[in-house]
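Sequence and structure are kept together here, with a separate record for every protein. A complete record is shown below as an example:
=====
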Amino acid sequence: MLKYTTKRILYSIVILFFVMFLIYVLMYNMPMGYIETKARELASRPGATKSYAQWLHDLNAQYGMDKGVLAGYFVWLKNALTGNWGDSWAWTIPVTQEFHNTVWYSFILGLVSFIFEIIIAIPLGIRAARRQYSFTDYATTVVSMVCISMPTFFLATILKYVFSVKLGWFDLSGMQGRNYMNLSQMGKFLDVAKHFVLPAITLTVINIGSLMRYTRTNMLEVLNADYIRTARAKGVPEKQVINRHAFRNTLIPLVTMLGGSLPSLFAGALITETLFSIRGIGYASYTSMTQGDIPFIMFYLAFISILTLLGNLISDLLYAAVDPRVRLT
């Protein structure tokens, strides 16, 4: 297992090196107007000590834009590995500080929706597989397909219209109510939690469809296996057949799928956070993209790349942990 883990980590490092190079090439070929606009803005600020030409030279030197693609990449990579990602142009603070200020909101939102996704989707998928071609199975299939097909912005608009406009239970957007500063610590916590309800529902509904279908498909495959028929022929109670034999083997592909989705808890939900004005990492990245904030965009793309590789690594390791055939191979 240690040899397998070491090999997978080394593969991930090599892949990350080339992925970050592609990210830098993407930045290198972006229109120079973004850097020129930022240099002009810095030079025109009150009390500015540098001219436009000096700021332009400093910004190009900071990201190696004046050294060519290959040499500039190693300059940027060296700064990135030492934690120097520069200052965000949109948020006027260091990129890592803005990341720290926003990522935990995304993590909380993603974690809540992830927990509800597991609680709802897996039991419904198993129940649909156990009662194949029944009303429960057809209803579960229809619900899962609706959830998979429904656009995020459409569901968020419906939830806002019903629960915010018509019923008035929640605010349309934002993370704080009008009287937030006058509340106690517990009141502030509950106020923020209340603003996370609709975004969490949106993420949960959008994501449960695929997991529900995945669980049902794998459960049906296991229930049709020879050893399940043998267990039933021997008179093993149906409850024991499902819980001890079928469900444990259904967990093998489910564990790898869920393991791969764990890093996405930190990636943020760009569309959902933007629609509900949740100041998470997704909302910050969208705002940075619209304002040409190259430092934060570069950081976010590298961060997403690391999360993707980490998710694949976790999936492989979990699969090797639950399936001895992978370790033996």
